[in-house]
Records
---
Amino acid sequence: MENMAAPDILALDIVDITKIYSQWQRTGQVRDILRNLIHPQKKEIKALEGLSLQVRQGEFAAYAGANGAGKSTTIKILSGILKPTSGSVRVLGMDPSVSRLELMRRIGVLFGQRTELWWDQPVLTSFEWKKSVWNIPDSVYKENLDMVTELLDLGELLHTFSRELSLGQRMKADLGMLLLHSPQVLFLDEPTLGLDVLAKRDMITFLKKINKERGVTIVVTSHDMDDLEEMARRIILLDHGHLAFDGSFEELRRVQGGLGRVRVTVSEDAGAGMQELPGLTLEEVKDNVYEYAYNHEKSSMQDILKALSCLSGIEDVELKRAPIEEVIAKLYRSWK
């Protein structure tokens, strides 16, 4: 498969967009029914406010934020489902709200809780339906069908009724269907939601492969930060509709102060003095394994190893980075 990426061309160009929702206010009390009819009240909610960002063709970007940050609203605007209240949006040079039909032939959108598969038909029937309705050329359809069948292991699933698929199997079939028309950009909203470990691994491996080998631009949202770090090279964080961070995962770790972990395994008769060590905060004890958190900007590795060398019964020491979940959770707490 040839890499079709064009890294010098913008796939997404979002300039100062704001999206405001209006909500009717109701008290739910019988005595207020007449007042609500005569003087209805609305509340404005800003899902996005002054958001600007760019994604170049061939990028794999993670798009994250706490619940209500504006992630799904952004994806719906980019795919033409919603129109921004103000600002401008271009996807592959097109305005999604104006050129939605043309744009849909060049992008793919997947929401983790929804499916386009026909419930009471084999998966292959849904694929062939898309080929017919979308007028996908025979050669393109065959090439893409062969690709997704092999890489997503869909062979036995193609002739299985959609209602008989597990969640992981359905997600793979939905992703396969999404790629039949060779989209240049993918918007994936929680694609690994509810998947078991093996299904999640297959999904991540496949997405990284089509990004690298076909140059497909991918923007993915997820609450599983470990998945995002494994998939994407760039992370964009939203906070209440505002752009809060845009950079690499390593840059994000540095911004948060260089959090790290030390895992110490000791012999069964050891343990004295393990509770309090200078520069280390005890996070967890399981059997004979002690896990500590530290900040390498405040505690040098030399000081940490010196403190450990004074203890007896140490069998193993493992150094690792703090989980990205913890790094981002610390940011979320600071935004409240």
---
Amino acid sequence: MSSQDIPEESLPSTQGAAHQGAVVSGEDPFADPGLPPHEHRIQDIDERAAKRSERVVAFLFTLSMLATVGFIVAYLAIPVDKNIYVFPIGHISALNFSLGLSLGVALFCIGAGAVHWARTLMSDVEVADERHPIEASPEVKAKVLADFADGARESALGRRKLIRNTMFGALAMFPLSGVFLLGGLGPKPGTKLRKTKWSAGKMLINQNTMQPLRPEDVQVGSLTFAMPEGMSEEDHDFQQEIAKAALMIVRLRPENIKDKRELDWSVDGIVAFSKICTHVGCPISLYEQQTHHVLCPCHQSTFDLSDGGRVIFGPAGHPLPQLQIKVNDKGYLEAMGDFPEPVGPAFWERG
């Protein structure tokens, strides 16, 4: 019988024969080949090359420091509204472009300097260690500490003073970028949190009809929303200002008003309170005419409009500010000044 007549699966494979031969000879076909021979870098054998690498790393760290200084200068010197043309992006904010570029360079140079330092000057000798239990023995702990000391010594941090000093300088200056970014939270509010658009002589404008309010327009038990005279929804700062100046107008029977100052500041039982909840600033819109209570829909803070806007339930911290009003010579309701205290939620310097 020729070999062509023998089924293919019956023929012995050369791989199987090789494996059998290896087993017979006692050799492990999957033995660990070990680490390849270590090849020294040019910096390991030539001190001049090592000095060049040291200067490169120091240059990168120094460039990072300069970029951080550039970040601070750009933040202080470039106007917020200045635009520049950058191809192919187009017109963008000069301040944002400068801050992003300088911050990116500062970060990149720190990273590139650390990488170049590790690749050219730190020890690159391969070390293999056997797996060990998770809980290290005293001998292993001692070995780890010794390896750490060897790594610190081989990094040449103490000997390469130029690298050490410039690295510390770059790392120390870079956080200054974050400190200056705190200024980007916005300018100091000054008196903006304490003042609204209300002032003496400004008429109360019905927000639904956009007409000045007369006392006869406000019925007992009704709730009307008003804003100061002179404001318009077309104003660029309308939303910002109405968030402080929004007003609730309610007419109570004078005998139902418990607070004497509230009664003195009212007109025939018509009282005006801030619409802004003193908890987190939600607009109040729910009124219960039988109890004279208003309810904030966000967190259910409840205020008594017959008792100086006092908080009777919920997380709000202080009463609703009241606006003193009167009737002018033309028969319209007008403010006698601004709110006597800041409207809305409490803040650190509210007092």
---
Amino acid sequence: MKAMAPQSTDVVIIGSGPTGSAYARIIRRDWPEARIVMVEAGPQILPEVGGHLDNVLDLAERAKLEILAQGGDRSPRMSISKEEWEARRAGGFDASLLRRSGLFIANEGDDGEGLFAGFSAANVGGMGTKWSAGTPTPSQAERVPFIPADELEAALRTAEGLLGVHKDPRGPDPVAVAMRERLGQQFNPGRTPDRFVQPMPMAATPGPNGPRWHGTDVILGNLVKEPEDTFRILADTTCRKVIHESGRATGVVLARTGTDETWTLSAGTVVVACDALHTPQLLHASGVRPKALGHYINDHYIVSQIAELDTDAPMQAMSWIPATNELPFSVTIAPASLHTMPKSADLSGQPIGMGVFCPADIDEKNHVAFDDSKLDWHGLPAISIRWTQSEGDRKRLEWAKQTALKVAEIIGRPAPGFATFVQPVGSSLHYQGTVRMGEKDDGTSVCDRNSRVWGFDNLYVAGNGVIPTVTATNPTLYSTALATFGARQIAAARRSL
């Protein structure tokens, strides 16, 4: 293994998800001769490097691949039972959420308010192989206030290009258009046109048989065709430590996943782009422990609602009610498949699923904890989450529930037999804040506006964890945009040598 492994590189990126891939692509654009190594703890599960699992049409085959992508726990999940759906319909806690491939409870809570859902997944492409592909634009209130507005807007447009965003990948859908018009009559007044009710922007390419969903294969582009001496992905490889001295990262300690044999890869720059749970975990294990590391963990809630649309014509497109300063919820509306659910005999129209993404208060005390005495499957300190719901969260959730019911009434009516349901926080898998950026190094952030870790010349972090603001909007476009600042800085520093 040691003879085959690279011994040095210009840039090493730990993690192969969307933001890590964005770093690689922008660095290549601005620094053509850079040697880049990407490290991924999981396997390559698809022929397309970083391809999206939803493009696998054979559902049995897709289920097998999802298990391979679960990280350390690769046991099959049980299907949802009738009793569990009955509990959900009655407004009870839906334990089936824990059976989502790779999802687990990441704290010690034992009730709905205290639960925080964690996620363990590892495969080439990271969450880019499994994500919803939704790429809505954050509202002004959600954006980093200390990055100039024009710079952030330009970065968002760059991110749209990297992800391959299409504004309406399902194309003309008369039923969806009519529904949006009704919703727009209620929600559009007072908004700017970019925040009107609209199709959900998606990272997808339209096709005659439906969209082709984009994973990190689209972000990486031709990088995967390069010789291994200029770009290489080390799959089934874990990073145990970032080596550093006097404010400079010099390399990383790597191991084949599941083994204890390690080797060192020297690097001019290190980018840690695992995710918002595992990036602070690796920094902690490496002795990089700024005060804010792992703290301020945040995620938006999802208030789920099933509505009934009274029409015989099918609707396929996904729609979006954007968050604004006045209404801080991002609402996603899409056809719902109820083939696995018991459903009321009173449900005669088309079922429509709705997720009202509800922001949660940011609190320094909410944090990721690390147990140095217990190692996980990466060989790193085990993760748990300490999180408490705020009074503001509870009030906002009541508002979100009323918004869900209001939207359902505009669509048609709330579907009979299905309660308005609040999923455990964390279920969206949009964790943020654990390596948050800040305007200055005052102990409340981990990195600067370019995602460079405070006190280091060449150590960067990436992913949703860098987002320091309260959000409701799906964050992938946002965090990919923020990643472009760091990637550009890395390339610019090299050019100045």
---
Amino acid sequence: MNTIKVGIIGCGSITRFRHAPEYAENPYVDEIVFYDRHVERSKALAEEFGGRFVVSVEELWNDPEITAISDCSSNENHHLNTSEALRNGKHVLCEKPLAVSVDKAEQILEAQQKSGKKLMVDHNQRFTKAHQKAKELIASKELGEVLTFKTSFGHQGPEHWGVNKSNSTWFFKKERSHSGVAGDLGVHKIDLIHYLLDDEITDVHSFTGALDKVDENGKPIEVCDNVVCALKTQKGRLGTASFSWTYYGSEDNTTTIYCEKGILKIYHDPENQLIVETKDGEVIQYQLEPIQTNDNQTKTGVIDAFIDAIIQDKEPVVTGKDAVSSLKVLEKILQ
């Protein structure tokens, strides 16, 4: 397989800390072409990562040498950019959530089916060693069937992470982020529960609120900064989930799975990322790898998996269909 050229749309923090460095390290990628509405951003990243930049998105579509595109634009543009890239014969890795609504996500899936190209969505929690090991243990039924679960994802908020490090972040804007913390952090955990349990969340009761965050004018933000919900899956498992931009201490990215013969604790302990406690008192600790946080950027494995799917011509680890099933839950949470 020859090396491939990749285009990236949107040059914010997610590109700078995750997509660009991981493409730069991938042996099959020989050039990264950056596009952002703010040319100075794409120019800066092209310099930092030794790629080049273009001044219009059409240049990415029209370049026959570009095989794949990362869509790192803000949420409201995913259905436009990702669909257009697919229609132009590019494989696409789209940031999550796939779109701001299930309807718009379906448009992307339609474009993908017509194009025959790969579509992968960046639900990166599937790629951590602790989550993969937990899935293996759950599937083996060593602890019996899963009964209940609880999961959490919270940190101090996107204004500490976003490209402009301020309250003017697009994450706080209804017309751009659409779903607030639910689409930023929550959708990751919805996808994770689907993945771990090989199941789907069907019923949702949720509370959402803009409890603390304010925009650049000091007004409460238009999207939720906290979500707490009760969930039920197709197979009858019950669970709870909390997503927050107001955990003003260390980040919480924990999940607990309660089975018939014991429990799995994931990312509760910084040293032992997976702990199994059995009904009869046995404790098994797995030291696997620390979870990636906004302060601790480690390789996600997402880019390598995307490139691998293209080169090996196989189905991506997270498909558009997977992303739509998470988006359906997201819509129920926000109703």
